[in-house]
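Dear Dr. H.,

I hope your travels went smoothly. While you were away I took the liberty of generating a structure for the chain from your last submission, since the lab meeting agenda had it listed for discussion. I wanted you to have the full record in hand beforehand rather than looking at slides cold. The sequence, exactly as received, is reproduced here:
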Amino acid sequence: MGVAHIFMFLERRKHEIINTVRDRWFQEIYVRRNNGSHIFLLVLGSGVLIAIIVIAAYSTGTQLSNSTVNLPSTASSSSVSACTCASQATSYTTTSSIDSQATSSDTTSSINFQATSSGSTQSIDISTQNIVQQPRTGIIVPIFADYSGSQLSQVNEVIQTKLAYSSVPMIAVMNPSGGPGISYNPNILSEVKNMQKANVTVLGYVPTVWGTRNITSVEADILTFHDWYQVNGTYLDQMPNWEYNGPQGQWYYAGPGGTYIPSYFSTLTNYAESLGMTFVFGNSGADVPQNFVGTVTTIGIFENAFAPSFFGDPSLTGIGGWHLNQNKSNFAFFSYDLSSLNPYYVVAASDYVSYMFLTNGTFGDSYIVLPPYFNQMVATLASTVSITVHSEILNGAQIGGDFATTITQPDGTTSEGYTPFTFEVISGSVVTISAESFTGYVFDHWSDGSTSPVMNVTATQAMTLISFYRV
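The corresponding predicted structure, in token form, is as follows:
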């Protein structure tokens, strides 16, 4: 877990936020570029040394080297294989015409496990209770090219990919000119309509200038997108990661007075919803205070030229891992300048966010064209199945909150969660799952009868495991 970090906010034409390392004395640089004019604001301040007691060390694989993965792959032998299901337990639901997140509910099924324990093979039927439906992680595609053949090519590729992998939620962000522009373009309306027919959610790009832009002007852009292009929602760029702006627009304002930024975004969300819009995305590009959650549908919490770690700072779980107490539908991330794609990283990252976008586009031109691995990225998400882990003590009482479970993907990429937690894996791949003992609770056995806290699992459909502990 990182002790210090620098948040460097940089934007060139479209919002791109750079997070680097904050040291004892920190410097925050914000560069904004809007319609060819450049405004540079340098904020220097004394930092406060934050003392952090590291209780547990987390490691995640963030290598994005190209991995060969057959999608879907054939299940190979391992310690546990979910092989038959009397009543299929699906962990994904897509009922909205615009790919909104599925509402959580419980299902029950019976899964037969072929378990290898102590050298013998046994067949055990268990009832998998309380499989909580999770939203399938989707793709958010910034289409920031000016209207041209290039933009049309991107739109067509988005449509064809969505049709090929219909189970994967997909958002396209249209940005004609740093917003809706000054004149209506019928070609853009045609593109929006074609994507919507393919069940792609379309958002209109609207800048907020870090919450300092007059809210009436922001609402006017939202209305223009609604009236001209009939988009499904709005993409509010430049969401700050601090709570107050001063009366003159000062950032990190400590009072008195000032604008409470969560209320600023809640107001914009309420306005968009009053127009019939169903999705509001707020892009901060960095982790935000917890009271931003719920002000918009989903928050972009990372945007940088590398793939984020899963724990630490910056990371997909936030400082101290506070995102783990929230629904992953609240979070999304963007990574650019990635020359190749590691499918196992994509799968592991999907444990923590509801939308992602990875591209080989470079700084300043990150979202002009789609990456060459766009289809592979979506296909990877389409190939996943979920493994949900619950914890119980031997008398049958469910416990949770402190029982860490780790899944290691075939390439060594690891993700971790606290039970109950749902992990994503590529169907048919062999993953290693491990349960951790904690403060007087000692791991006893898995629900398949295995007594080792570490075992290999092959899942070809949604499944639930229970880790039993003795006190």
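Two observations you may find useful: The helical segments are 149-164, 186-197, 215-229, 261-274, 343-349, 374-382. Confidence is low (pLDDT under 50) at residues 1-68, 72-132.

With kind regards,
E. W.
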